[in-house]
Design brief:
By secondary structure, the chain is α+β, with helices and mostly antiparallel strands. The chain has 27 helices and 35 strands. Strands 10, 11, 12, 13, 14, 15 and 18 form a seven-stranded mixed β-sheet that branches. A four-stranded parallel β-sheet has the order 2-1-27-28, covered by helices on one side. A hairpin with a 2-residue loop joins strand 32 and strand 33. The protein is globular, with a radius of gyration of 34 Å. The chain binds one RNA strand through helix 7, strand 11, strand 15, helix 11 and strand 31.
RNA sequence: GUCGGCGUGGCGGAACGGUAGACGCGCUGGAUUUAGGAUCCAGUGGCCGAAAGGCCGUGGAGGUUCGAUUCCUCUCGCCGACACCA
């Protein structure tokens, strides 16, 4: 083996060199026309906020590892990257430092790009996109118009979540416990004309198609999405108020209709004013006023005691004609169902609590299997038992009564079965500057007019101020009649930008359409998508929605965009998530300077299971550093070069076995994202090689095979050092281009095994025996053991359990 | 409250129902070195013991099994998501 002159491992000397070579040779530039099997490997693109730290890097290192691994396995890998570059933080930061958001954003992109490169992370940069650039957002606008044409974009007056700090509207999903997801300020309610995307039209498919992702998406994420969509089946029922108004309620428990002893309307319910009696009016108004002023967070607290007020009015229960009082209470939400409920205190905890507080009747209509309780001390909410006090439905189990009563209501014209969702339409209007303008014009004569495709993009003006404050920009001729009109000044939620970027990557520079359907169909769906759990709901749900709409529009075949999803855990330091604001991030620059990119990458994979959070321990990086020094020495330093004898020496045999066992283990671990144990397996291989050398083993063909395997297996994790050693050991091409080593099961098989001998389930001895021993022989060998004899006390075992090549258990 | 996830040495963590603690950090002892955050060898869960060996041990209590870190039931603790959705 030709070995270049020995020299210590100095990562800083070799890393930039190989980064340059990979870039020059276009390693990882995807070929649309390749006939190798395609593998679309994608990591969630980031918002370019400035310096990256090793917390961010975990995602990119995993992605890079997968790309390199799949490529060596012979796949044509598409591994693009881009920037989710619109958003309010850039706008706010820009104002603070007196720069333009574009300038700031592009500067941040340059920083991040350099940091990715110094970690040896490769992408097909020829496909780079930034959502804030016109050649991208032109197509975001085109897609918005497509949604509009398909009736999936609409505008309406809506009570919206308003963040007073960011001065914008937020989607429901962006309100966390009543606070803004970005700035954490309390969110207010406001009525505004807003743009929505009709994601509710796709609620069923978004829910049902989660089945297609069973086993390939984390169960946790599937459950979160299902809960978010929140489909429930129930019935809408009309209760007639004494004013003659029908009050429609929604219930999932029509079987409890006979137990409805009062009704509750949300304070915002439109019929509140109409039904309220004069005597109660001032009290009701005061309550409604108070509810309005209360913040979401106060109102939604379950801890809080129920409040409410009687309207003075009554309604008729359609199933039994009973007269029941109508109350107002803020525990009923206008935003769900019909904003009105029938209250069944006997079988609903909230209604029970309310009834107790206001001394309203509690009636038992579902008896548990043990029989009616009579006086209920708590709401009985289970659906087991049978109906009582429910007229001709008495005796039916709830599951049977539900469809029966629903059907009866429909026949009587008093209600119908309905399906409801927790999912709301997606509010996409934002009222600031740094976002994708909604390509619409408001004309007094023509109404809302879409900007013709030929006039796209609607470009942002240069001034960094809300579009609504920029008359020079928003005053335009109507595309339809030519008269002076006003551009839409809302921009789109940035989650739209990221809801289709994976499609744009398949033909990133297409000038005719958002993406080329043929190329999209070639590359889609994404084979492996990797990112943070924080996007479990929003980004993934919206992307799935877009994929389905574009599928329906005939633009792309797959109905799901991401075949496999992996969500990596966060990297913490001192118990807290690495973040800029906490100042506890580990900078890749420092790491590269000290330990080198490769050791950093290995440490990041070795730190723990990749789907779990991990604690960054500075001293522990030493392990990977030492490991790479050892690899370097092992590969370059042994100087005796001997010819392999015809037959393998015992040491060679062991080495060969360990090598093939490592090939199997590392291949499996990379495939199943068990990167931490893959590192262990590689360390074990290096230790085996070390033993071989120390024991005076031959450095012939077997040795060479081990060296090659070590470098190839290690390459996806530590690309620079392996590339350098690959070259120094006389290989012609790049390690990155080399084929993944083949696993030979015969070579990995152990000729002897350690048989664990148990007596009564306790380990008493371990015997070195040839593999594949028949039970009788194993038993004989076990019984010969002195320790076993002692444990058995001379008596023969009553039972013997034999697991070939592993264990024999003698039960006395 | 509901739904998830997780509890294993001083630390990060391994372990198809079959040798608990792989691999690494740290630590202890030794060897070696003109350089490197060096390197090499041995040891390192607890208790008893000079040793051989033995006993205990995966948050806790039960259960299934020849055998349980792994499966089941209950329970405690931590973390996360959702949270008055009728």
């Amino acid at each position: 083996m030709a070995v270049t002159k020995r020299r210590g491992y100095v990562p800083q000397d070799i890393e930039p060199k190989w980064q340059r070579v990979w870039a020059e040779r276009g390693v990882l530039v995807a070929d649309d026309a390749s006939d190798r099997p395609k593998h679309y490997n994608l990591v969630m693109f980031p918002y370019p906020s400035g310096e990256l730290h090793m917390g961010h890097m975990r995602n990119y290192v995993i992605g890079d590892l997968v790309s390199r691994f799949r490529r060596m396995q012979g796949m044509e890998v598409l591994n693009p990257f881009g920037w989710d570059a619109f958003g309010m933080p850039a706008e706010n930061a820009a104002i603070k430092v007196g720069k333009h958001p574009r300038e700031l954003t592009l500067g941040n992109i340059a920083i991040a790009k350099r940091q990715l490169a110094m970690m040896g992370v490769l992408y097909d940069w020829s496909r780079e996109v930034a959502t804030c650039l016109p050649d991208y957002y032109r197509w975001t606008q085109a897609l918005f118009l497509l949604f509009w044409e398909r009736g999936l974009a609409y505008r309406r007056l809506a009570p919206v979540n308003w963040c007073p700090f960011d001065k914008t509207v937020l989607a429901n999903e962006q309100v966390i416990n009543g606070r803004c997801w970005r700035c954490d300020n309390l969110v207010e309610k406001k009525d505004l004309e807003q743009w929505f995307l009709k994601i509710t039209d796709y609620a069923d498919r978004l829910l049902d198609d989660l089945e297609l992702l069973r086993g390939t998406w984390p169960e946790k994420v599937r459950v979160m999405q299902a809960n978010w969509i929140g489909r429930s089946h129930g019935a809408e029922v009309d209760f007639e108020a004494e004013t003659g108004d029908a009050i429609r309620i929604y219930t999932t428990r029509p079987d409890t209709l006979f137990g409805a002893t009062f009704m509750v309307l949300a304070p915002e319910h439109p019929l509140v004013e109409r039904v309220t009696t004069d005597a109660q009016r001032s009290e009701v108004r005061a309550y409604v006023e108070r509810a309005r002023r209360e913040t979401e967070i106060e109102r939604l607290s379950t801890e809080r005691e129920k409040t409410g007020v009687f309207t003075g009015a009554y309604a008729t229960n359609p199933v039994n004609g009973e007269r029941i009082p109508i109350w107002i209470a803020d525990y009923v939400l206008m935003g769900y169902g019909t904003g009105a409920i029938m209250a069944v205190p006997g079988h609903d905890e909230r209604d029970f609590e309310f009834a107790k507080k206001f001394a309203l009747e509690i009636r038992e209509v579902i008896a548990p299997p043990s029989g009616p309780v009579g006086e209920l001390s708590t709401a009985y909410v289970d659906k087991v038992g049978s109906l009582v006090n429910s007229g001709r439905f008495d005796g039916l189990p709830p599951e049977v009564a539900i469809p029966k009563i629903t059907q009866w209501l429909a026949e009587q014209g008093k209600g119908e079965g309905v399906t409801r969702y927790r999912l709301r339409d997606w509010l996409i209007s934002r009222q600031r500057y740094w976002g994708c303008p909604i390509p619409m014009v408001h004309c007094e004569a023509c109404g809302i007019v879409p900007v013709p495709d030929a006039e796209l993009p609607v470009e942002l003006p240069p001034e960094n101020k809300p579009l609504a404050e920029n008359p020079e920009w928003y005053t335009v001729p109507c595309p339809s009649c030519g008269r002076s009109a006003r551009r839409e000044t809302d921009t789109m939620d940035t989650f739209i930008d990221s809801a289709w970027y994976f499609l744009r990557f398949t033909s990133a520079h297409d000038r005719e359409e958002p993406f080329d359907p043929e190329l999209a169909n070639h590359w889609m769906a994404v084979d492996q998508y990797t990112g943070g759990i924080e996007h479990a709901i929003l980004h993934l749900l919206y992307s799935r929605f877009f994929e389905k709409v574009l599928h329906d529009a005939g633009m792309v075949e797959p109905v799901e965009p991401f075949m496999r999803l992996f969500t990596q855990g966060m990297v913490k330091r001192n118990g807290q998530v690495m973040s800029k604001s906490l100042g506890n991030g580990v900078a890749p620059d420092d790491l590269v300077k000290r330990e080198g990119a490769d050791a950093g990458r290995i440490y990041e994979m070795f730190i723990g299971p990749p789907d779990e959070d991990a604690e960054w321990t500075v001293s522990a990086v030493a392990g990977p550093v030492r490991f790479l020094h050892r690899v370097w020495r092992l590969v370059l330093e042994p100087e005796r070069i001997e010819r392999s004898p015809a037959a393998l020496s015992p040491s060679d045999e062991v080495l060969r076995r360990r090598t093939h066992q490592a090939i199997r283990k590392v291949t499996d671990d990379y495939t199943s994202f068990a990167f931490n144990t893959a590192v262990s397996a590689l360390m074990e291989l290096a230790n085996a090689m070390q033993e071989h050398v120390a024991g005076g083993g031959e450095l012939g063909d077997t040795w060479r095979e081990s060296v090659d395997a070590l470098l190839l297996l290690l390459h996806p994790m530590a690309p620079h050092v392996t590339e350098e050693l690959w070259e120094r050991t006389g290989h012609a091409g790049l390690c990155a281009d080399a084929a993944w080593p083949a696993y030979n099961p015969a070579a990995a098989a152990d000729p002897t095994i350690t048989l664990v001998v148990q007596v009564g389930g306790k380990v008493r001895d371990r015997l070195e025996l040839p593999a594949g021993l028949p039970e009788a022989d194993a038993r004989e060998a076990a019984l010969r053991s002195e320790k076993v004899g002692r444990a058995l006390d001379g008596k023969p075992p009553r039972q013997v359990v034999y697991v070939p090549d592993r264990l024999i258990n003698l039960v006395p």
